[in-house]
Amino acid sequence: MLYYPTAFDPKQEKTKEDRFSELEELEFQVFRMQQNMKEISKHHDVLGIDETKENKWVIIYVSDDGNICKVMAHDCEKPYQGKWDFSIHAHYKNDFCVHIDDIRGKENLGFGSVCMRFLKEYTAERKNIRAISGAISKRDWGHVDRLEYFYKKHRFHVELEPEEKKGEIIWQPM
Length: 174
Prior knowledge:
This is GNAT family N-acetyltransferase. The protein is built from three helices and eight strands, in the order αβββββαβαββ.
């Protein structure tokens, strides 16, 4: 049986020490975020800051030379040292379509969803891209169910060919 807290449940009071500790932790996170933003912005365009499903703050930034576009995430719990924690690598197929080549990083932490939202926003709004495409290859087939769920969650059309262990994805803004 599931239990859902109600307004009538007694609230757990936090001690003064607990609140002070949380405040100190928050101040440290904000300081770390400021430092990371300064370092990242020296080399990349910062797109924004967002929160993952794990309630972790991440800085989202892009490297785009007109041919290759990388949307990257850095977890704000540690200092930025030139390496991303998660990245979506893509290339421009033409003036209207970007093709996802690879998604790199640990799965199931929420980084992929945050990066995908920023990739869609960045390419559609700043680059006037009308479609994002990609392929699901044989090497991806071991986790094809997870990939299909991920892409459908982000409103991609997914076509799979199970016999050949491959597939195609496409997204177009509304």
